[in-house]
């Protein structure tokens, strides 16, 4: 039985497996520039964040209808359930779809249909987090937030993703102020390829409650001290870091050092179809590569639920934490 866990850093578009991409392409009459699923898998070799993003956006062309988004989310949830996920907070990128003529309503209703059945079908509770593309203008993010207003009953929070360098968090100050006014929870990618200063800015200017990635906080000891003191969760994605060359090999990933420093680290899959593993695979990989102790694995599982946005359902969080306490992590 896999470790019970929450997944807090997962882009639903990044769960598009080659097989589903081809199936949706056929259903929608879209031609993909790859001969078959093998040729597509070959293309999943990236040199950095940008080379991944180019393919990630290109493949989205197959997602057209609400049903496509339902199928995408349902496929993720089925895999996540097999990997021990009890709770998933799922990112989506409305601007990338809007730019292709797919309105946010289609995306949210499509994803929502899968999430509505997630508990019954897969035993997973869910939240939806709408991400803004940081390499697009702030005005576009604000327009997206405006367009999302009819669907806020389905959206728990906002996030910030895509190409980081040159797009500091402060660019989105007003958008996050408006999100806060609307009662939305706030997270942001920071310190993945961008500097430690972006992590600080995400906290101070955007008021985020979690940092997605945050790897480069390690370059600033006073920031690390603050993240420990304020118990700011970091949603780390070790397999993604290796694939996108943020670290050379998994054995050199600082996760273990981060846990030893007292950081509230969590382990997540980011874009599992592209990065070679879902979150259970990621747990296994870091356990082996970093020789994590049973207590460190338990801490990671506990952190995932403690860092989740389950404040509206504390009884559920307690149930999940009890499962972690009862789990045998080995000796
Ligand atoms: Zn991410």
From TrEMBL:
Binding site for substrate: 271
Record key words, sorted: Hydrolase, Metal-binding, Nucleotide metabolism, Zinc
Domain (Adenosine deaminase) ranges: 4-316
Cofactor(s) this protein cannot do without: Zn(2+)
EC number: 3.5.4.2
Protein name: Adenine deaminase
Important for catalytic activity, annotated site positions: 213
Source organism: Streptomyces roseoviridis
InterPro entries: A_deaminase_dom, ADE, Ado/ade_deaminase, Metal_Hydrolase
Cofactor binding summary note: Binds 1 zinc ion per subunit.
Catalytic site: 192
